[in-house]
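In this section we walk through a basic example: taking a raw amino acid sequence and producing a predicted 3D structure, encoded as discrete structure tokens. The instruction is simple. Fold the sequence below.
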Amino acid sequence: MRHDLLIRRAEVIDGTGRAPFTADVAVDGQRIVAVGDLEGHDAEETLDARGLYLTPGFIDVHTHDDTNVIRAPEMLPKLSQGVTTVVVGNCGISAAPVTLTGEVPDPMNLLGEAVDFAYPSFAAYAEAVELARPAVNVAALIGHTSLRSQVMDDFHRPASADEIARMRATLKQALAEGAMGLSSGLAYHNAFHAPDSEMAALVAAVGEAGGLYTTHLRDEFAGQAAAMDEAFDTARRGGAPLVISHLKCAGAGNWGQAPRALAQLEGAAERQRVHCDCYPYTAGSSTLDLGQVTDEIAITITWSRPHPEQARRQLADIAGDWGLSLMEAARHLQPAGAVYHNMSEDDMRRVLTHPLAMVGSDGLPNDPHPHPRLWGAFPRVLAHYSRDLALMPLPEAVRKMTGLSAATFGLVDRGEIREGAYADLVLLDLATLEDTADYDAPVSPARGILRVVVNGATAYADGAPGRTRTGRMLRRSVRLSPSPGQ
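The resulting token sequence is shown next.
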């Protein structure tokens, strides 16, 4: 039998968590057609994978690639680390359904300029993605703050009944057109004033459609426990599965709280379907938020619109040079971006290794000096935390970035190596695998990612993109149950 692609004698990690096994994998068109001993089969292209690992393509469940999959469809920061699918629209900010003419509200400015918000409906955004033919697959959430931007001229109050009704109608249309669900970023000042009643009405629409709700908690610092309970309650009443975005215990005074946070997560998981995502670093990155300015941690400015010359400098040094307090200096720098070294390594490791946690990069592709997670998150989990530190077995690490992610987000026939699944694949050399991006030089591709296949076609090989881009827009096609274990 002759195939399009035949990968011989790979150590297969299939995305389910089971132990690796040696097998041949055959691909015809977009799908895997056979896994096992395929002696007697041949192909248009045959790869000798002896001594190498073959995994499903990594699914980055937490990205801000909304406009980049259109404006920079090569998607090298993701392809080069083995990512074949990105979930966009996180933290309450999405490129659709949005049109803007004036200043882009914070933190929507993480996604681009006003001209980049040109998709009045989810269908228009999906069409633009398909026309751009990105190198990776794209699944999209609808951002709560983005919905607010279309109906409110003042974010610093609750939405009115009429505004909620308009947001809900827009959300329901987007869900009908294939959006995966709703995200919120309640910690940000442009969403913080949204009360439970505003969120409940929107999440109920998500539950009715069979989608899911993801949230950047209202408080990741001292008030985290209450914020988690709020998220659990909102999702449960709305009948929607919940994902807590980048679960962390932020702020020096909150370090050591991971066991409590994970116990809360486990308790909620007994009565509803809940997960979280995590990136393998102890620093976060976002816009420069006055609420996070403190002398307890190092804060690096990554960009500043009024003072671009201060990029890549410590906020404390800038304040010293200017003779200002940290808060005054931060105000002078805004709008700006920052990296906050606000987590403990032990807390992060506990979250990363928890069975309910998926891997998400939370990378910011439009930051001129991005956090290294944009280029290195997935290899870092596999090479540093699994191979080198043995914090979790390799099959479990792979499950967290493939099979678990696909099941949580309802990405049908993704995230596993099995007959009938889409051929999203990563061939890697575990011995040489390494994330090379760091805080000083964050734009740096990983080593050891030898080949990436997206929908059956080579998308990245030998450090270079493939000849064609074969990513797809992935629309929601199944109803997700809010009940645990389903």
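Looking at the output, two observations stand out. The longest helix spans residues 161-176. The two ends are 38 Å apart (CA to CA). In the next section we compare this with other chains.
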